[in-house]
Design a protein that fits this description.
498 residues, three-stranded antiparallel sheet, alpha+beta, 12 strands
Length: 498
Amino acid sequence: MENLILQYPSITTLLSTAGIFLALYVFFSGFDRQRKEPPGPRPLPLFGSLLQLDTKAPHKTLHELSKKYGPIFTVYFGPKKVVVLAGHKMIKQALVSHNAFSDKEILPIIKDLKLTHGIIFANGSSWKEMRNFALTSMKDFGMGKQACGEKIIEESQHLIDVFKGTHGNPIDTAQPVRQAVCNIICSIVYGKRFEYDDPVFSSMVARAKKNSQLMGCASVQLYNLFPRLFSWVGARKQLMKGAFANRKQMKELIKGLQDTLNPQMHRGLVDAFLARKMHLETSGIANSHYDDDNLLITIVNLFTAGTNTTSSTIRYGLLLMAKYPKIQDLVQEELSRVVGSRQIQVEDRKNLPYTDAVIHEIQRMISIVPSIAHCASQDATLQGYFIKKGTPVLVLLWSALQDENEWENPDTFDPAHFLDKDGNFRKREAFLTFSAGSRVCTGESLARMELFLFFTSLLQHFRFTPPPGVMEDELDLTLVTGFFLSPSPHELCAISRF
């Protein structure tokens, strides 16, 4: 009996505690319901919203969903909840005016590839330091300056020679254009360019292209959603093999520069990094971000972002010129009238409004990076919607570049989008091809200079046409989805104008 009586306080305490927890649950769950979350399609068990997405162009499906649910909405990629931001006003509000969405989401494949160092996928103090270093160093080595323009002009001549060597016969523009653009990064990073027939250089460029395609393929994306179930997929294994093969060659190039380093005379970004690292070590400064991993991945980032994006945009531009010969006529007429046969210079841009408009419209049409995976670094409220810390946030740049409310003919290649009524070039607020805010493209000024000088130099020397037997309207403008969008495989004829 005594034992039984002694149990009553325990039972009473248990019931009281349970009551308190129940009351707290009711209170806080009611509080959570008051925190309005972004709307979106009802997810299916396990699959979420995946079955609604066009696997070849998921950005287009998300753009259509934004028309129904608004500029901020929720989708489920399998079991993963993702908040999507659409439209240039919403994107700018989130990335420029808000400080909660600058972090990048770290997907399983990013961890596997050890890409959490460097610039693109790093977060926190390491990212800030590496971004500042890269920006400073790239400016020191000519980005946005006359010296860089001279390097691009020199490289464009090598590319022109390749096209001249075809004697007007069909050529796949992918490899030579990619090599030319890659050489600009090489000159900034390593302090030298490579010949196009260099086997090491050619293999690195080819692998980088393949890696970009694999990074965005369906099976790798499936692995990102269900890493434990799909770690076996072949594309992931190919990607890992190709990525680390390229890094092995990069390490050898770094080693060669390190062995011949003169701390007082920097040949490129690698020298600047090594000299900074040496200075910090001799000064006894510990735990700095200037380590081997950050150097290697920063180089990987610069080559990945700087080569694939710009080369694909140039190639798509040449394809569009062949597809729309009347627009090509107007570009070449303006070039002949303003520049003539002399070498085009960066400062010519201001006197070539139509050509400048065409280049911007090419960028708008290809929308090379249709979406960027960010992450909420803290609990946040955006336009009245609650976004919990850690929630993946997908910034849909495609929506800004294809917004029917911002562009007169969003589905049409129309340079008039960037021209005023007097034919002068005009900027557009919705032109977010380089993103916005603290995560805006590090190499934006370099990319703009490359696009202008490579494109105009090629159009000055050649007329681009479809291969014999192919009509202009048969040229395929379909974009291939990868880590970046790129033109479908194709050939063009470069007919000499001189």
